[in-house]
Amino acid sequence: MPLEPMQKDRESRPLSNPGREPFTTIDDLTQKAEELASGLQKLGKYKHPLDIRKGVRKRKEVSDMAEREENRTIKAGAKTYFFDIKNTKEGKPFLVITESRFKGEGKERERASVIVFPENAEEFSQAVAEMIGRLG
User: Fold this and answer.
1) Predicted structure pTM score
2) Which domains does the chain have, with CATH numbers?
């Protein structure tokens, strides 16, 4: 038996007790479900539906970072390396090197990070270059 909407003159409202709050009917919920389904169908037509959030914008520093190419990703088999320039609360830049390892189906990826501050960057770079020279 299909559900029929409640007649307009019989809306959900307190009858005997004027202080009682209105109650939700199955018709109210059916209408909301139809509106939700319609909205989800419209949203599904967008190229990036998960980027559409009410009152949420891309953080400026994230979009600026992408534009200035202050991040880099290297894929190496089951590992992925991320090189990101971030800023402290005081605005001081630092480098974060993150290794993400695939541990198998159904398991979470394992992550490890190294942080390099500007005052150590030259010495860090020299040590990496020296060690890479010893590889080959």
Assistant:
1) 0.48
2) 12-51 (no CATH), 60-135 (3.10.450.700)
